[in-house]
C-alpha cells in the first residue's frame, strides 16, 4: 500500500513537473562585449535582446512548436571584446549551461570565431551584427546572417545612388579597420566602371585625433561627393571638422555612426543631409518596424541603432518564428531556418546559404532629424536630397 | 602648399598640442615628484568627460564650469587615493624602482576598477553632447567655440602652472622635490604636503582636461587608454619630471601629427609619432629638455 502511494506521489510530481504551468524557462545564451574595445557598440544589441525577451514573456512565453509556451531566460556573458573568449563562452553555453537556443555576439570577428563552435555542435544560430564578403565562405547549415550590407553589394548600390544624385567626382576617406578597407576595395573599381572620378583618396588610422589635414585637401579638391568610410569615433571628428571647414559637397556619406541615436543628438541640424549605411527605417509601411521603434523608444528613452539594434532584433524575430514552427529540435530548426520565409521589421527575409537573399542593400539619409531609406528607390521612404549646409 | 600655410592647420596643431601638453602635465607632476607611474591617468580624463556630460545634460551647466567641477572631483579622488594607498608606500624606505613597480600595478588595478564601475554605472553606451558648438570666425579660420575654449584653457593653464612652479614657494618646493628628494627633506621642505599637492593637482588636471575633451569626442568608459599612452609619450619626449619639457613635447607631437599627416599621409600618423619618439629616445634618452638629475 505504502509503495503504491509513493509511486502515485512520484507520478503526480512528474506530471506537475511536465505541465505547462510549471514548464522550465527556455534558456537562450549569448556572449557580448560588455567591457573592452567594442563595449561601446554592444548596448544597442543587448537592448534589442532584452526588449525581445521582455515582450515574449509578457505574451506568455516563447511558442515552442505550437505546443506550449515557455518563458525566456537570457544567459549573458561578457566576452571582454575578445573573439577567443567568445569561443570559450559559446562552448560553455552549449556544453555546460546546456542552453536551448543561442543568440549572436556583437561584431564580425566574433561571428567568425564562434562559427566553428556552432558547426561542431550542430547548434543553429542566427547571426546579426556581422558584415563581410568572407561571411559567404562559411559553411552553411548552422549559421545565417541577416544583414544586406555586404561590401560588394554596398559598392554597387552606392554607385547607383551616386549616379542618381548626379555625382561625377568623389573624395574617399577610409578608416584602416577591416570593414572600411573592404568597402573601399569594392568601391574603387565600381566607381571607375561608372566613370566617377576619385579626386582624393586618403586612408587614416582608427586612432586619428584630428582630420584637418585630410579635409583641407578635400576642400581644395571640391568633389561632388565625400565618402567617409568611418566608424563612430572618427565620424565625429569628420563632422566637427567638415563643419568648421564648411565642406560644401552635396553628397556626404558617413558610413557607420549616424544610425546611432547619440550621434544625431550631437549634431542635430548639422547632420541633416548626411547619408549613411542601412536598410531599415520606421517611417515606411511595415507595422512591425513601427511597433519595434515605438517600444524601443519607450523602454530605453532613445532611438534604436538603425544598424545594430535592427539586425539583432531581426535575428530574434527569425528565431522566434522558427521555434514556433520547429520547436527546440536542432535538426528541425536548421531545416526551418534554411527554407522558410520570415516576416521581420526589414520585410520578408529568406536565406540562401548563409546570407539574407531578399533584403536589398540600401542607404539612409538624415532629413529634418528623421532617418529615411533613400536607396534603393523601390524601398525608399523619402527621396535623396542634396546636403543643405551645416546650420 | 597652400594647405600647409593655412591658419586652419596651424590652429588644429595648436589645439591638439595644447591638449596633449595639459594631459601630460598632470602625469608628469605625479611622476616627477613621487615616481608613481599613474597608468590610470586616461581614466581620470574619462571621469572628467562624464562629469562634463552629466552636468550639461542634467543641469545645462556649461563645460567651462563643468571642467572646474571635474577638476575638484578628480582632485578629491586623488586625495582619497593618496591617503588610502600611496602615503604609506612613499613614506617607507623603498627604493625608487620598487615604488615605480608597485605604483604601476596599483594604478593598473585602479584603472580596471574605474573603467568597470563607470561601465556598470552609466553602461558602455557612448555619450556625446552638443555644447559650445557655434562657429567662431577669425579671418579665414573658422573654429567651434568648444575647440577654441580647449585651446585657450589648455594654453592658459599650462603657462600658469609653469610660472607657478617657477615663482611660488610651493611651486619651487615641487621643483626641488623633482630635482632631489633627499636634499628637499634636508632643507626643510614638508615633503608630505608637497606630494599631496602634486598628487591632487595631477588628478585635477586630468579631470579638467577630460571635461574639455568630452565636448568634442564621444565619451565612453574605455576612452581613457589612448590618453594614457599619449601622456606617457609626451612626458618621455619632454623628459620625465620636466614639466616645461612636457608642454613643449605635447606641442611638438601636435605639430608632427597635423603637419606630418598633411605632408605625407594619415596612414603614417603612428609611424611619424613613434618614429620621432624613438629618435628622441636614441639621441636624447633623457628627453628633449631634461637636465642631468642629481641623485
Description:
The complex is a heterodimer of chains A (391) and B (295). Chain A is of the alpha/beta class and 391 residues long. Helices cover 42% and strands 20% of the residues of chain A. In chain A, strands 9-8-10-11-12-17-18 form a seven-stranded mixed β-sheet, with helices on both faces. Chain A has a three-stranded parallel β-sheet with strand order 4-1-5, sandwiched between helices. By secondary structure, chain B is mainly alpha-helical. Chain B has a single domain, classed as ABC transporter involved in vitamin B12 uptake, BtuC, CATH 1.10.3470. Chain B is 76% helix and 3% strand. Chain B is built from twelve helices and two strands. Chain B has a two-stranded antiparallel sheet with strand order 1-2. Chain B is globular, with a radius of gyration of 19 Å. The interface between A and B is large, with 42 and 41 residues.
Show the helix and strand layout.
The complex is a heterodimer of chains A (391) and B (295).
Chain A: H1 2-18, E1 26-32, H2 43-58, E2 62-64, E3 68-70, E4 72-78, H3 83-95, E5 101-102, H4 108-120, E6 125-127, E7 143-145, H5 151-164, E8 169-175, H6 178-193, E9 197-204, H7 212-221, E10 225-229, H8 232-245, E11 251-254, H9 261-267, E12 274-277, H10 287-300, H11 308-326, H12 330-339, E13 342-344, E14 347-349, E15 351-352, E16 355-356, E17 363-367, E18 370-375
Parallel strand pairs in A: 1-4, 1-5, 6-7, 8-9, 8-10, 10-11, 11-12
Antiparallel strand pairs in A: 2-3, 12-17, 13-14, 15-16, 17-18
Chain B: H1 2-5, H2 7-34, H3 41-59, H4 63-91, H5 96-122, E1 135-138, E2 141-144, H6 145-167, H7 169-179, H8 181-186, H9 191-216, H10 225-238, H11 243-263, H12 269-283
Antiparallel strand pairs in B: 1-2
Helix pairs in contact in B: 2-6, 2-7, 2-9, 2-10, 2-11, 3-4, 3-5, 3-9, 3-10, 4-9, 6-7, 6-9, 7-9, 10-11, 11-12
Amino acid at each position: 500500500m505504502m509503495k503504491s502511494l509513493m509511486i502515485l506521489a512520484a507520478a503526480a510530481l512528474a506530471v506537475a513537473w511536465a505541465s505547462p504551468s510549471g514548464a522550465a524557462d527556455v534558456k537562450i545564451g549569448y556572449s557580448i562585449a560588455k567591457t573592452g574595445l567594442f563595449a561601446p557598440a554592444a548596448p544597442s544589441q543587448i537592448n534589442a535582446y532584452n526588449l525581445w525577451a521582455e515582450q515574449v514573456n509578457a505574451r506568455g512565453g516563447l511558442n515552442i512548436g505550437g505546443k506550449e509556451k515557455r518563458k525566456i531566460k537570457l544567459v549573458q556573458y561578457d566576452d571582454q571584446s575578445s573573439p577567443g573568449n567568445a569561443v570559450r563562452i559559446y562552448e560553455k553555453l552549449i556544453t555546460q549551461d546546456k542552453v536551448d537556443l543561442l543568440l549572436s555576439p556583437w561584431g564580425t570577428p566574433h561571428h567568425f570565431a564562434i562559427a566553428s563552435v556552432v558547426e561542431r555542435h550542430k547548434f543553429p544560430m542566427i547571426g546579426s551584427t556581422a558584415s563581410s564578403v568572407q561571411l559567404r565562405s562559411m559553411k552553411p547549415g548552422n549559421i545565417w546572417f541577416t544583414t544586406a550590407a555586404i561590401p560588394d553589394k554596398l559598392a554597387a548600390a552606392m554607385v547607383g545612388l551616386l549616379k542618381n544624385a548626379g555625382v561625377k567626382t568623389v573624395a574617399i576617406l577610409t578608416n584602416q579597420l577591416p570593414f572600411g578597407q573592404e568597402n573601399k576595395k569594392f568601391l574603387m573599381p565600381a566607381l571607375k566602371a561608372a566613370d566617377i572620378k576619385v579626386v582624393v583618396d586618403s586612408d587614416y588610422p582608427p586612432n586619428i585625433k584630428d582630420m584637418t589635414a585630410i579635409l583641407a585637401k578635400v576642400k581644395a579638391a571640391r568633389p561632388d561627393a565625400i565618402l567617409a568610410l568611418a566608424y563612430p569615433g572618427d565620424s565625429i571628428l569628420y563632422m566637427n571638422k567638415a563643419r568648421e571647414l564648411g565642406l560644401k559637397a552635396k553628397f556626404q556619406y558617413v558610413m557607420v555612426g549616424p544610425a546611432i541615436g547619440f550621434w544625431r543628438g550631437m549634431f542635430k541640424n548639422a547632420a541633416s543631409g548626411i547619408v549613411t549605411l542601412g536598410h531599415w527605417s520606421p517611417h515606411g509601411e511595415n507595422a512591425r518596424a513601427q511597433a519595434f521603434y515605438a517600444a524601443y523608444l519607450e523602454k530605453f528613452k532613445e532611438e534604436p541603432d538603425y544598424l545594430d539594434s535592427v539586425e539583432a532584433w531581426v535575428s530574434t524575430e527569425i528565431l522566434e518564428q522558427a521555434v514556433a514552427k520547429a520547436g527546440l529540435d536542432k535538426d528541425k530548426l536548421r531545416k526551418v531556418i534554411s527554407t522558410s520565409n520570415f516576416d521581420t521589421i526589414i520585410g520578408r527575409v529568406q536565406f540562401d546559404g548563409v546570407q539574407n537573399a531578399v533584403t536589398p542593400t540600401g542607404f539612409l539619409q538624415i532629413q529634418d532629424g528623421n532617418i529615411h531609406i533613400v536607396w534603393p528607390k523601390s524601398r525608399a521612404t523619402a527621396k535623396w536630397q542634396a546636403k543643405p549646409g551645416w546650420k | 602648399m597652400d594647405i600647409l600655410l593655412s591658419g586652419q592647420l596651424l590652429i588644429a596643431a595648436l589645439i591638439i598640442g595644447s591638449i596633449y601638453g595639459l594631459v601630460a602635465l598632470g602625469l608628469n607632476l605625479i611622476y616627477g615628484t613621487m615616481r608613481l607611474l599613474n597608468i590610470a591617468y586616461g581614466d581620470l580624463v574619462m571621469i572628467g568627460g562624464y562629469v562634463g556630460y552629466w552636468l550639461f545634460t542634467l543641469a545645462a551647466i556649461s563645460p567651462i564650469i563643468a571642467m572646474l567641477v571635474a577638476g575638484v572631483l578628480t582632485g578629491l579622488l586623488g586625495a582619497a587615493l593618496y591617503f588610502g594607498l600611496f602615503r604609506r608606500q612613499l613614506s617607507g624606505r623603498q627604493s625608487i624602482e620598487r615604488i615605480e613597480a608597485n605604483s604601476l600595478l596599483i594604478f593598473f588595478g585602479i584603472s580596471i576598477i574605474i573603467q568597470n564601475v563607470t561601465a556598470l554605472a552609466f553602461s558602455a553606451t557612448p555619450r556625446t553632447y552638443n555644447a559650445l558648438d557655434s562657429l567662431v570666425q577669425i579671418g579665414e579660420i573658422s573654429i567651434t567655440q568648444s575647440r577654441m575654449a580647449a585651446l585657450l584653457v589648455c594654453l592658459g593653464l599650462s603657462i600658469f602652472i609653469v610660472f607657478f612652479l617657477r615663482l611660488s614657494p610651493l611651486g619651487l618646493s615641487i621643483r626641488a622635490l623633482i630635482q632631489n628628494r633627499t636634499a628637499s627633506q634636508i632643507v626643510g621642505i614638508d615633503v608630505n604636503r608637497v606630494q599631496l599637492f602634486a598628487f591632487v593637482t595631477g588628478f585635477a588636471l586630468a579631470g579638467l582636461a577630460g571635461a574639455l575633451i568630452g565636448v568634442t569626442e564621444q565619451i565612453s568608459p574605455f576612452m581613457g587608454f589612448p590618453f594614457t599612452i599619449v601622456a606617457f609619450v609626451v612626458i618621455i619626449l619632454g623628459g620625465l619630471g620636466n614639466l616645461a619639457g612636457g608642454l613643449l613635447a605635447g606641442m611638438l607631437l601636435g605639430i608632427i601629427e597635423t603637419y606630418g599627416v598633411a605632408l605625407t599621409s594619415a596612414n603614417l600618423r603612428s609611424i611619424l609619432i613613434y618614429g620621432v619618439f624613438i629618435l628622441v629616445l636614441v639621441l636624447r634618452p633623457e628627453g628633449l629638455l631634461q637636465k642631468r638629475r642629481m641623485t
